[in-house]
Amino acid sequence: xxxxxxxxxxxxxxxxxxxxxxxxxxxxxxxxxxxxxxxxxxxxxxxxxxxxxxxxxxxxxxxxxxxxxxxxxxxxxxxxxxxxxxxxxxxxxxxxxxxxxxxxxxxxxxxxxxxxxxxxxxxxxxxxxxxxxxxxxxxxxxxxxxxxxxxxxxxxxxxxxxxxxxxxxxxxxxxxxxxxxxxxxxxxxxxx
Length: 192
Fold this sequence. Notes:
About 70% of the residues lie in helices and about 0% in strands. The chain has helices spanning about 15-20, 25-40, 55-80, 90-105, 110-140, 150-180, 185-190; strands at about 50, 110. By secondary structure, it is mainly alpha-helical. Helix 3 packs antiparallel against helix 6. The model has no long low-confidence stretch (mean pLDDT about 90). The protein contains seven helices and two strands.
């Protein structure tokens, strides 16, 4: 089952709806948009957004940590028999983002950076919604380590950490986009 043994939350969205539709949705869109963006930039000379090496390595490290957090959440949900929904799509999307960042060491193009910024923004929104709902779950159905392998407080904390990292990634990509020259400005400097 995609979701099983979940505590029924009053209102909407339920934790099952979050884990099967809302949270994986940005990853589905990212997996579709990234090849389109890469195809668009193929064969073109586009300006690249450069960041300090230490910042890029830190960014990669944090994306890897967030990827590990999604695997931790999947494992703990599976151990508790709560069902994982379509959350593995988020893990796949993060892995894809990590490899894009890893292979684009020379800098990201503006197009790929905009796709990443959109992905981080959508994930931030979905994880904000999920964290709010998990906070309500924590209040309505408090579980402890004695009666649960994955207490609701831990589930909430895991998602708040992932949400915070997605917000940091979004701010970082937006900062890089602001600092990047536009394509028409780049073409003028190349022509001169």
